[in-house]
Design brief:
The chain is 68% helix and 0% strand. The chain is an all-alpha fold.
Length: 121
């Protein structure tokens, strides 16, 4: 399987599931790096939080779906630039609803980020 085909399969599998498969999301974010994973996980936690308003949940779903889409503005297979449009979309959407990002949401996102991307010294 080519790298592009594997990339598309992972993204399609994540999108087609009713429940987010964290192992598939993790693989995608591992390719993207910690810089993109941080806002993606914050968006995920905001979307999953029961206190988040419906409009904010839909916005986070749209931003995460854009990240997982095989076809986007800048192909994710391009080194460095590939995930830049995803980062902009996620950061903008989380910023739009930042007043709903509670310390608990930030903590859950940060814990997951640290588990998936352990800092080495």
């Amino acid at each position: 399987m080519t790298d592009h085909a594997a990339h598309t399969t992972v993204e399609a599998d994540v999108l087609e599931r009713e429940v987010i498969d964290e192992s598939l999301l993790r693989r995608l974010l591992k390719r993207a790096g910690r810089g993109l994973a941080a806002p993606a996980l914050e968006a995920l936690e905001l979307m999953l939080d029961p206190e988040t308003p419906s409009a904010a949940r839909l916005t986070m779903l749209a931003a995460l779906s854009y990240l997982l889409m095989p076809a986007d503005l800048i192909p994710d297979l391009l080194p460095v630039a590939g995930f830049s449009d995803d980062l902009v979309a996620l950061t903008a959407m989380v910023g739009l609803w930042s007043n709903h990002v509670t310390p608990a949401i930030r903590m859950r996102a940060r814990r997951k980020l640290d588990r998936w991307f352990p800092l080495t010294h």
